[in-house]
Model the fold of this input.
Amino acid sequence: MSEVILHAEKIDKSFVGTHAIDHVTLDFYKGEIHALIGENGSGKSTFTSCLTGIYHKDSGTFTLLGKEVNAKNQVDGNYQGVAIIVQETGTLSGLTVAENIFLGKEDEFTKFHVKNTKAMNKKAQELLNSYGFDYIKATDIIDKYNFEDRKLIEIVKATYFKPQVLIVDETTTALGEKGRKELFKVMKDVKDDGRCVIFISHDLDEVLEQSDNVSVLRDGEYIDTVKSSDVTTDDLKKLMVGREMSGNYYRADYGEPISDEVVLRGEHLTVPGEIEDFSIELHKGEIIGIGGLSECGMHEVGKALFGASYDREGTVTTADGTQIKDIKTAIDHSIAYASKDRSTESLVINDTIQDNITLPSLEDIKRNHILHAKDERAFAEKYARQMSTKMVGVHQFMSALSGGNKQKVVLARWIGKNSDIIILDSPTRGIDIRVKADIYQMMDKMRKSGKSIIMISEEISELLGMADRIIIMKDGRQNGEFLRHEGLKDTDLIAKMV
Amino acid sequence: MDTEKKVKLSLMNQPLFRTVMPFAGFIFIVVLFAILTGGQLYTPGNLKLLLSQSYVLLIACVGVFMVMTMGGLDFSQGSMLGVCSVVICFLSNVNIVLAILCGVLTGGLIGIVNGFFNVKRKITSFIVTICNMYLLRGMVAYATTKSPVYGVSNITSYNTMGFNLTFTIVILLVAFAVFRYTGLGNRLKAIGAGETAARFAGVRVEKTKMLIYMAAGMITGLAAFINSIKVGSVTSTAGNQLETQIMIALVLGGMPVNGGAKVRFYNIILGALTYKILTAGLVMLGIEPKTQQLIMGIVFLVMVAVFADRETGMIVK
Done:
């Protein structure tokens, strides 16, 4: 192997109640793409956040090419040779593209205390062109660009100054085909240049395809490093979970008849700019999968059915004829909705696990019209436990939980509400395999007990694996419908998406 | 230096610290003024006086407490108390029960106006209530231009400790029961901590907000009644700066200014009492009003900094 570029020595970090990374020692080499994998809460992001100055480590040292790295913040990290591209939006609205790229580095263009905006814009445009993103204009306000383009701008921002170590943290889940290609190209450039990429992803196929070596973390501890060419995704799963995982965690049945009983009917749904004349009938005990490209309008369908869309036209009717026009009515008529946007829509992040689970069920928890603290607690504990949420206690704040655990709380809430119609938008986005398997199992159980599910998903394998019926959307309209069938292939679905 | 600062900051986010701190502050103030005034502050006579000055603040705090739990603010309380007092004093000459009813109704109507502009017109509560603070103060000034508005001559006969104390305790108990045992408190906290998420969990956010602004106004109507029977008349300065007193009191009681999940009902009582002892103590020590204001300003700023829930962010709705 070639020379060590970055050495991490006994890195340690604790948050209130959790030991996020436990004395992790790890080497990274010149000219490698080094994947870092592990389940939610295993400490991958904490590790890289400590390196790049997003968090401050409790103890341990990072040594980059013989020099200790001690980043106070991300910009400081950049100057010390490390950069990160994150999962969520890392650009600031209201600023121009150029201002975003050079955020915190304006000094480079400042002479005699005057910022030379023109020079900055020129430099930014040159950089964009050199990456092949010449359709992005440096002087434009960044809000003009969609999520994917903003991610590309972030790639430029994180790599133009040739950092020795580039961290790509869960970025691919947010990107489409084009964005991924660009990202992988940039990663390869860094590698060919003799520098190093630390690649974090939940998609194990992608991990094996892109990386040279894979290191596994579990519960904050370092487990092992393997060569990507020597292992299969099953081997990786085993390392991550610490026990054997069966290869197939989707439901196994095919050809079960669907009940004729319609529990929810959406007719001629239109939301300006999102969906166009979309109709859907959900049957008792059925799982409908809705798929498509991320901008096809499928995410709005969930909101429209839940009564949460602005300006919705068309009708949503439950079996007893109730019109669903607002969220409260939807919940009162046994409809549950877990949004794709977990941190602002699904959960009150700055509140406790207990409050999040009990919020829609407060009226049900009351005894003789009185809400007792003891009952609230018992209710929350019951359903948090049922979902095996990893927590100190139900009084813990949501913000301290990892992504997978947050989603478990969302599901615990709706299981507690005992809703019969469950709308899940991207239920397993950014979630590791063990929790994924739990969620699929839960969905299968719900289906068998007569509950009906609408699963909106960008993951084709999930649609094929779980749905009785798959609706593919394109440009806000239904563009294809498939019944559950063993011979159904991903290419069949993709053909209707594009 | 840097690490030391961080440890301190994270200490303030410890639940235990949040709970203990306002109680410790209360005890500190009590002991401090016991020593400084040589026990003078706590003679039965002075304690009675202290209590008699606390009713209006205690009652008015209840409404603002609920508004602030949702992440809002209400600066119109002082002027609102003035307007309600005018109505109560004026109508007390007709019938005392009618006076109370109309006082409460007036407060409720003003609350609805606050709510309308905040909820329907989507203007932050901070701006709406400051506008109304001036508007209502103007109304009080008009009503009292020639002379103060006098209540019926026997109105002050209600001003007994037994009546006032019972009145205040009943209001606090009812408010507590509603806040704690109907789920209203949970909903308000959820709105304060994350409005969108609360809406997606089935909380009728707009309705709840309107209701709370109205209720806060009605409660101030009740406080205006206590104010009226105590003074017997209304001048143009009635209720002046009550809104700031309320806010300082709540923050002294450990309430995060931006509301949310960390709000506790005892913030009201603890805060109002701490505030009253603090001001009474400063007066007794013979400290000039301008110096008092200076001290209150510093105390307020420090407490806001200590108790703000930084994770929720400084969002005033």
